[in-house]
Known about the structure:
The chain is mostly helical.
Amino acid sequence: MYPLVYHKSLSTEKWFSFPRHQQLLMIANEMNRAQNALLKNESDNAVHAWERSFELTDLTINDPKNVRYIKELLRFRELAGELFLNPSVQFNKQLMDGMISLDPKAYNSLV
């Protein structure tokens, strides 16, 4: 794992201690911040939020408890990379909703 830039005080052990639904909600929270920044035409803030979501996604991918979801998490990361290169409020929302729907607890906490 590379050194964290935005979450310097977050260790892998601490991240791994969070349940999967909480990890996914934290990633979705960064995506929501990016969406709000896009709506305000604050592209720099959107970029930083996406970068934070990449860090959290990478930590989640490396968490042994998420091995069953590795394919979905890697696909999310790939699509987030496309979003990073071609910002879109609608695509950001779809990707964020997709992330949340990976876990029933995460999904139900927002419904």
